[in-house]
Amino acid sequence: MAASPSPSADSTYRFDDLRALYINCTLKPSPQVSHTQGLLDKSRAIMDGQGVTTEVVRAVDHDIAPGVYPDMTEHGFATDAWPALYERVMAADILVLAGPIWLGDNSSVTKLVIERLYAGSGVLNSAGQYAYYGRVGGCLITGNEDGVKHCAMNILYSLQHLGYTIPPQADAGWIGPAGPGPSYLDPGSGGPENDFTNRNTTFMTWNLMHMAAMLKHAKGIPAHGNQRSEWDAGCRFDAPNPDYR
Fold first, then answer.
1. pTM above 0.90, yes or no
2. How many CB atoms lie within 10 A of CB 115?
3. Buried b (16+ CB within 10 A) or exposed e, 215-244
4. Who contacts 156 (Cβ-Cβ below 8 Å, separation ≥6)?
């Protein structure tokens, strides 16, 4: 049986009006080899092929101060690269957090980035919704120890809590055999050839593009029943009044 034509050739599956930001939360500064980058590049190549404008930030290359305020120089730190990075986050329709597993959990850099994303959780958009509304989030995980699903749950929960929309199957990862062993890009690891990882990475990438396009064409999440500005002004969107009897 002849293979079905690739939908990539159909203009229906072009996403030239979308922007995607990948934040690589490896612990290794450039130009050291990042195994997370190896997996990230597979997802990015799919997006590039469909016309998405993509960008990668290696968080550890930037002097991001810890904290949960938009600009930590206002809270005792001498420098903070996050305000400039936040502008790049807000320019993207798709955000993918990618990082390694350490001790069964996300890296300290991943946690730092999530904390700084949280710093913008009180910002509102022009419709009075939280500012991350209308954007789509996903994650990629690498390592040589168990914990992909745990790490993904933490990241995807955090992103949706902040206002990102999470499409189906918005995570992918590779860990190889449980316990000490080769990392993703190590010779003979089998990582780049792993069908399960390649399938999930591909599905995740397409679902992110589809969902982001749907939201963009719909001009975001409808602004009714979720406007912080209206709630603060006294509107309750038909929510029942508390009954204290």
1. yes
2. 16
3. bbeeeebebeebbeebeeeeeeeeeeeeee
4. 137, 138, 139, 166, 170, 171
